[in-house]
Fold this protein.
Amino acid sequence: MSVITPARPRTLRRVATVIGVTAAAMVLGAGAAFAHVSVNPDTVAPGSYSKLTFQVPNESDSASTTRLEIQLPKDTPFASVRAKAIPGWTVESTKEKLPAAITQGTTTIDEAITSIVFTADSETDAIGLNQFGEFGISVGPVPEVPSITFIAVQTYSDGEIITWGDPTPAAGEEPDHPAPVLTVAGAATDGHAQGAAGTDGGDLATVAMDEHPSDNTARTLGIVGIVVGVLGLATGVLGFTRGRRMKVGS
């Protein structure tokens, strides 16, 4: 009768520990990557009137998010900007005179909205711990440029202010507070409302952001699937080894 040495169970335990730690690191790493202000959808067609939703996570362990300022670009302004009303939040916009008139398609503008501020009416309405908020605006027509960068300024109830405005390099690590970036791609439109690039959304009032989930959701599901697969593999290896032990010991 063969006898399994004590080293094999210890080896299996080490393998299981490494797999578990790796899976946990993947989940935590994914969470850290997603914990920043993002714009959804992240791609729209030039010339379109689009609904954009800014997803804002509350990252503080002791304070709530009470204010969000979205700074719109002045070099590529939008002729039309409207903010979505949110119960419990007050919305204010700032319009500025442009240095020079800008023509976008058939529209020429010499002033534009350059900032929208959402402020919670009370602590109850603020974004609490382990929560996130969504702030919507409609813009158009979208300028024919490769991308549009926004700056989001998040204010907490304890006075802390986080500015999401760091550029993300083409190669290298993402900065701690990346700016939300909207990619402009696809065939130019004649002003119809759109979500993702190339997808005609019809009337602006009926365009639903849920029809265009962000890449974060897809990546999250993918990572969850990988973790489940890794854990399943670990369970199979342990079960197979345990069966061999029983067979050898009989």
Observations:
- The radius of gyration is 25 Å.
- Residues 12 and 238 are 7 Å apart (CA to CA).
- Residues 215-249 form the longest helix (35 residues).
- DSSP finds two helices and 14 strands in the chain.
